[in-house]
Amino acid sequence: MKPKVTMIAWNQNDNYVVTAVNNHLLKVWNSCTGQLLHDLVGHADEVFVLETHPFDSRIMLSAGHDGNIFIWDITKGTKTKHYFNMIEGQGHGAVFDCRFSPDGQHFACTDSHGHLLIFGFGCSRPYEKIPDQMFFHTDYRPLIRDSNNYVLDEQTQQAPHLMPPPFLVDVDGNPHPTKYQRLVPGRENCADEHLIPQLGYVATSDGEVVEQVIGQQTIDQDEQGLEPSILDGMIRQLQLEQDQRTGADQESASSAPQNGEGTPRRG
């Protein structure tokens, strides 16, 4: 295999450079002399994440497609902490990105299975107010294009940005209780009855009929006299104001003097 560098990062004070190579080694270099100082061994697949600690120049984080997350002391060439992202029943999950918090006490990672992994010091109680699995019910719905080549949601035939706020569901599409639905922007002040999504049966592209959240308000529902979404009303109001401003600007432009001066000439 011809060695190739897949990622590079400087440490906090720029004294060291760490490179990830496609042979799964991390190499630590002196940034001034170019001297190779350490080979960091531990990864078993490609590494595309190298993250520098915000204030400790000794610390570097690495993560890769092998599901491993390492905290290294690059001055000594040793590993300080190790985590393996094993997912029950599915093997390991490749880690795609990691970032330290500004105070260096926490770091967060995202993986190939849609998980957000949060590590750090302190109590995990603040995170217990949200469920382990959080998806929007529209996350994996198909999109189509209309005759003008604009993107529409296939089920509601609406532009995605004009749709009401989605519902929070688990990985199987089951809606979460109303206290979680209020975490969605646009649903903070909704009554309880508006936070309970309607479930229905829809046919997938394979012809399979599945139960799915269908509690989305459409233009047809508005015509039937059903209560519209708060967010829809705000969007329509903003669009109306923008149209009025555009019309006023065009009108003032058409009535402006054509002689190049700021005011019309006096007769």
From TrEMBL:
Record GO cellular component, one term: nucleus
Keywords: Repeat, WD repeat
Signal sequence extent: none
SMART domains (alphabetical): WD40
WD repeats (start-end): 1-39, 40-82
Region span, Disordered: 239-267
Pfam families, per the entry: WD40
Listed Polar residues bias regions: 249-261
One BP annotation, GO: cytoskeleton organization
SUPFAM superfamilies, A to Z: WD40 repeat-like
Alphabetized InterPro entries for the sequence: Bromo_WD_repeat (IPR052060), WD40/YVTN_repeat-like_dom_sf (IPR015943), WD40_repeat_CS (IPR019775), WD40_repeat_dom_sf (IPR036322), WD40_rpt (IPR001680)
UniProt-recorded name of the protein: BRWD1 protein
Organism: Grallaria varia
Lineage of the organism: Eukaryota, Metazoa, Chordata, Craniata, Vertebrata
Gene: Brwd1_0
